[in-house]
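Case study B.
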Amino acid sequence: MTEEIKKGLAGVVVDTTAVSKVVQETNSLTYRGYPVQELAAKRSFEDVAYLIWNGELPTEAQLKEFQERERAQRAVDDKLVQLILDLPKDCHPMHVVQTAVAYLGAVDPEADTEGPEANLAKAERLYAQLPTIVAIDHRRRHGLDPVAPTKDLGYAANFFKMVFDEVPADEVVRCFDVSMILYAEHSFNASTFTSRVITSTTSDLYSAVAGAVGALKGPLHGGANEAVMAMLEEVGTADKASAWIDDALAKKAKIMGFGHRVYKNGDSRVPTMRKAFEDMVAVKGANDLLDLYNAFEEDFVGRKGIYPNLDYPSGPAYHLMGFDTEQFTPIFVMARITGWTAHIFEQQANNALIRPLSAYDGEDQREVPDNRG
Ligand code: CMC
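Model:
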């Protein structure tokens, strides 16, 4: 075999993008030129969604218009509500999200209409409706009826209202909003690349998003945030962390929430999300969970020099916000819909079919036998 194989496309630059920049050397991440930590400190997820799609932060008037459009589109149709309610209660919530996205494509007469305006309208509708979809699914698993969206609340507060039928303290809503900003976009990660591959065939935006949802579900990608919480629950308490890690490493298991394909010396989003997690610990008085979190991190980083990624603090933070563990990755979808669709627009604007080559290592060419033998 003479071809050079780039397993996992590691280190391969596939295309240009103006949406975000990941700088491996300095572990930094910018969205449209703005450092993500500064966006999380100074802006809301609504501002950031607008930025990711439009390239600039909104003015006061632009933000108001954008928020009004989002609030007006939150409700989903009754058939979709019924479709969600009819799915098995023990199926993974990412299958529910994927089914709902496919449904929204099926009922949109403009699904195959091309052009930036039509596609931005579809992206904004998905951004407005995904929280409603996730909330309906969260509640049905507890035997609870859906809570209708309300136009009186901002994006994050409305989501809490639809899930829990109440809005928590402002600090909790703010921590959630910060997580959404940090999860919104991350260049050519596996799910975004999936959406670009699908778009490159000139397929529609819903198909690209449904494919991206499937890629995000895996524990090596978005599924890590729920896997982190399941892992911390299995470990139990801080004093058990070391023995648990011994055991996991002896089995050659991957430790969820640690390591990154691009960042090798720490993920720039982690300090901001860790602070949000600590704020949640303070609100809930969950010091045992913080002790476990710290002990586990210190032990694992000390042994392997592999640092936490965003999923490590976000998993326990969502837990303290009251969300079911299996809904953490659908919440990630609510944020990443912005990044995915911005990349879909870029791919559409400057398309080339994504079709790599493979190096064949199977049987040499041979004749089909005349008989089955
Ligand atoms: N636990 C144990 N060992 C690890 C881990 C980990 N989490 N991450 C990397 N390693 C080791 C790995 O075993 C390998 O060791 P060796 O060279 O001795 O075989 C070495 O580090 C390189 O790992 P790799 O898997 O080849 O590196 P990668 O760049 O392909 O993997 C990763 C990146 C994210 C898939 C991996 O770090 C991992 O599986 N992490 C756990 C899952 C996780 O937290 N995923 C979320 C990723 S970030 C957010 C997101 O995208 O959603």
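The CA atoms of residues 166 and 311 lie 26 Å apart. The remaining cases will be described in the next quarterly update.
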